Batch of 3 targets.
Target 1
Amino acid sequence: MDEIADDEILLRHIPGGTLWQAPGPRITSANFRLRHDQNETGISVTRAKITTPQRLLEMVGASLEQGSRVGFVRAGDARQLGLCVVPRPVGHDAGHAEIQSGQARLDDQACRKKLAMLFHFLPDQP
């Protein structure tokens, strides 16, 4: 399993709706809340060099027409917050990875807010 370079771009599905997308538009911290009831160990992302934004939307069953967008961040930027970025390939997505707690904790609202501020939306595709 190859390491994820700091300059690698990570993609995340951002659902439509005001809980997930705030005016601006900007990505809200709610997108980075761990679901402990589902035993999540990190925030699911995919590696842009392996999985395209369109494929990501297909895998999660979402579309731009439904208001879904794709957010992106550089792996090194997430690491600078004190988070870990590790590859976690799964059968349907060889590019799957996780942003995990490290020195900074995803259970901390301030950390999730900083992470949300690092993520940006990809331009909408026709």
Target 2
Amino acid sequence: MARVRVLGKVGVVVAMAVAIALLAKGLYPADLPSNPNPDFVDNIFDNRGVLWAARLLLVSAAGVLAFGGIFIVLSIGTRMRNREWLRRAGPFEISEEELGEANGEARFWRKTALASQEEAVNLRERLRRSRELIGELEKLR
């Protein structure tokens, strides 16, 4: 079982090495465009090695940004799933006491909203009954 794991890891490393070699070969410029009036930048990038290095740099920067973005998204998702919330960002920090107070206030306002909702339901019912009584009184006239 351990031998299969080692062979699998070696296979992944070999596949990555082949992929990197093919990418590097594919990035090497086949021909360079000529410019009749070259300026300073044209003179710098007139060399195949410089152009190849610039392309490798751009591709590697894109790879680093892609892996960094994936890591950030997975890290945030994992922390959210574990209910680990951000409590400090740079010089700003929220203490446990402040967090407890904020949770207490949230519970208070939730209870207040539920009580207000019950009162609104009761008032609607009383208004409906009042309208019924008014309708019956108008019929008696």
Target 3
Amino acid sequence: MDTPSSAQSDAIGRARYKLRQAELALHHLRQGPAEIALDMRRARTPSNPDIRLDTFFFASLGLCKSAYYIIENDQGRRYKDAIHSWRMNVLDIPGRTHFNRMMNLRDIDVHQGRSDGKTLGAMIPIERSSDDDAWMHQQQTNYAALGIRPTATEHKNPDGSTVSSYDGLQSSFCLYIEIAGKTWEASKACERFIAQLNQLLDSVAAANVPPLSLLQRLWLWFRTKLRIQE
């Protein structure tokens, strides 16, 4: 899909494009801990892990909110009822809590300049693909030749999730946020938020709301002008 032009009338298509951009930012957020861990393995002090993680977290959130507002404000809010129905009838209470929290987090960042999240130490699986880590391969025991079943290394991260790997774990940093008293790793929270918005777009598309007539659009424009003058 090409970049939508300003004249493109398909609001759902423009919103889906924003979510694709949000997924790209999410991809970079997921890669952040591995890049930080690589710096630590090479005995380099991680340079501002907070800004590295915050940047992609809020980039993803901002693009998600853009997708939502494209739908909400399209043609005099013609999807208003469809959006309200989705929020009240499709989302359960925990889902609405998550959705509202993610919407508010971006506002806190924009208007107050704070992330309302914490960058905490975490463990992630060791990745063996880098040529710089060739020496680590040489130290691995050949369990198959010895007839021994390897033991996985496990660790519980700040969000309560258990990470495990037969190749071992390495130290890094991850961004965590609180939602209704539960700690979420930021990329997992973003992943759920994007899934919710994709579900919203599917629901709006299925509602098949007809475009507003010219008379309706003129009336909405007139009402807007009256509010501005007041």
